[in-house]
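Possible regression after last week's pipeline update?

I re-ran a chain I had predicted before the update to compare outputs. Posting the input and the new output here so someone can diff against the archived version. Not blocking, just want to make sure nothing changed silently.
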Amino acid sequence: MLGRTAARVAVAVANNNFFCFGMGYSAQALIPRLLEQNWMVAGTSRDGEGNSLPFSRANPLSEPHGQLCDVTHILLSIPPDDAGDPVLDCHGDDLATLPKLCWLGYLSTTGVYGDHGGGWVDEATPLAPIHKISTRGQRRVAAETAWLHWAERHGLAMHVFRLAGIYGPGRNALENLRRGRARRIVKPGHVFSRIHVDDLAAVLAASMAKPNPGAIYNVCDDEAAPPQDVIAHAAELLGRLPPPEVPFDQAELSPMAASFYGDNKRVRNDRIKDELGVRLKYPDYRAGLAALLRGF
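New output (post-update):
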């Protein structure tokens, strides 16, 4: 099986052809890099907006063999649902037969590690999502496992990217402050890891240039930080007073929002640097916010 995987990776592809299941925020940051290199680019959205193809569990691709036949690289950016991973369930057999496919990337989350009381985790840390708060973590673990087993069975170059909280243009603390939506919620000792969407795109591009079948990468910047510090720094950049601090137990968060405070950890990113050679353009939230401010 390993021989077949190596053979797939080694195939020289004359025309790189990228397809994304779920052309959302992350994919939209990667696509300009590919277009600059004359890649063919296509993908799906739930409703088929723009030039995308419609896809959902209830509405699979209408002609997958024709629509995907020349694809060389696939990014999987659709979260699993109660029934499992919709792309794997609907089109796993189709993807396994694509003759030119040499790279697949699955976008997961660092939430699969669960709570470590502010301690460090890396890609070898056992997965222990917090089941008492949300089923999202368990779904992600199940989806990661299913894709990796599927790829090993078919000799395909699968990669898993465990993403920290993504921010970037249009989605950041500066925007939240300007729109009056920022809250400075304080849970003592709690930190989050983050990644600027442009650095995420750089990681994906680096992996596509250097496939390593079965590899798992944490995608985050160098500094896990308390969320209230990020809001305070963004307010300072904008020259305004930060919102008042609100204790976590008084914040009246929705179950979804509260779930993000359920685990507390610092995520190591050595592998994207050592193996892929990525040098983060925005190694912490201060560098990222400063650049976003200049772009406003």
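Follow-up from reviewer: compared with the archived run. The CA atoms of residues 230 and 285 lie 7 Å apart. Marking as no regression found.
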